[in-house]
Amino acid sequence: MPNASPKDLLRRFAVPLLALLLGGCSTLDYYAHLGQGQWQLLQARQPVEQLLEAPTTDPDLARRLTLSQQARDFASARLHLPENRSYRLYADLKRPFVVWNVFATPEFSLDPELHCFPIAGCVAYRGYYQQGRARGAAALLRQQGLDTYIGGVEAYSTLGWFDDPLLNTMLRWNDERFIAVIFHELAHQQYYLPDDTAFNESFATFVEREGLRQWHASRGEKPPATDDRQRQQFIELVLASRERLRQLYASDLPEADMRIAKQAEFERLRRDYRAMRQREWGGQGRYDAWIDSPLNNAKLLPFGLYDQWVPAFAALFERAQRNWPAFYAAVAALGRLPADERLSELQGLLQKSQN
Questions:
Q1: Is the separation of the CB atoms in 345 and 334 below 8 Å?
Q2: For residue 150, which of 131, 129, 168 has the smallest C-alpha distance?
Q3: 216-259: pLDDT as tens digits
Q4: What global pTM score does this model have?
């Protein structure tokens, strides 16, 4: 995602609600709260066209909604993404996030606690419409000795089961990101592979980026100048720290020593970040708040998932002669392969993209 922050990396790890409601591994209270939250969201929706016609609509909101409908038209007409009522509606939830996702890992592991549901498959988080519920769930997990992290989410996809609205929580983004998320979430409606988050997010991220490039070209605009170097360097720094932690957890150190070494690694990550900020970024870094807040395994989970296979999907798009329907068919064919064959194909495409 353009200029994504760590919070941005978390924001689309959202809960496909119908899939969760069909699951059978949680409490009735949790499902009741999900049903109520989704119902409230559906009840808050208003057709965008009505808001644009209303004289009382805030002018800035009207401008953003007008832009969203232009992007929505482009998504279906030019990117061949689903044509439905998603993002033709708007809902003001009067809160900063639509859901709060809780991530958890064991104390000495980077493997997430998975939650498996029909349709969506297994995901590395559990979503809550109420921040208090998310905090309570995280507290219970910490009592079990798990590392936890709560990430606020501004938008999510129900994978086409409902007409997903534009949300007030999305309006904090600039125009570029606002359009990008429409393309990204519609890509999830176009194709979604249960149990493979990196595949799904890399696919949707490629559609988002190529869609934005074509969107600007269609309007005779140059894409906004963005410098992803800082973001990429930060992600690489976190991934290097994660790999060192993985090696630590695979060692035979006694737990007490491993606990000390774990905290030492997080301090090293902070030191490396500050050194890089000074050396590479002129002392200015947009990840200061993230690095200065408490660090644990769960907080590292999302890094790399959005970008891992983006070059592979770019190569697949070229193989499909930049034809969107042919590309989507090729993506679906990849998704039908057994996991090991799919991984091999993606690695081959990735290597081709680097040549």
A1: yes
A2: 131
A3: 999 999 876 655 788 889 999 999 999 999 999 999 999 999 99
A4: 0.84
Give the model confidence (pLDDT) of 284-300 as tens digits.
Answer: 888 999 999 999 999 99
Residue 144 DSSP one-character state: T
Please say whether the dihedral angle defined by the alpha carbons of residues 116, 118, 123 and 128, taken in this order, is positive or negative: negative
The radius of gyration of the chain from alpha carbons, rounded to an integer in Å, stands at: 21
Sign of CA dihedral 154, 192, 224, 325: negative
* Positive/negative CA dihedral, 228, 284, 273, 299: negative
CA distances from 3 to 88, 207, 315 (A): 26, 16, 23
Beta strands in the chain (DSSP E): 45-47, 89-91, 99-105, 115-117, 121-123, 126-128, 147-153, 166-167
Burial (Cβ within 10 Å: 0-12, 13-18, ≥19) of residue 302: buried
Strand-pairing partners, residue 321, are none
Q: How far apart are CA 138 and CA 134, in angstroms?
A: 6
Full DSSP string of 228-255: -HHHHHHHHHHHHHHHHHHHHHTS---H
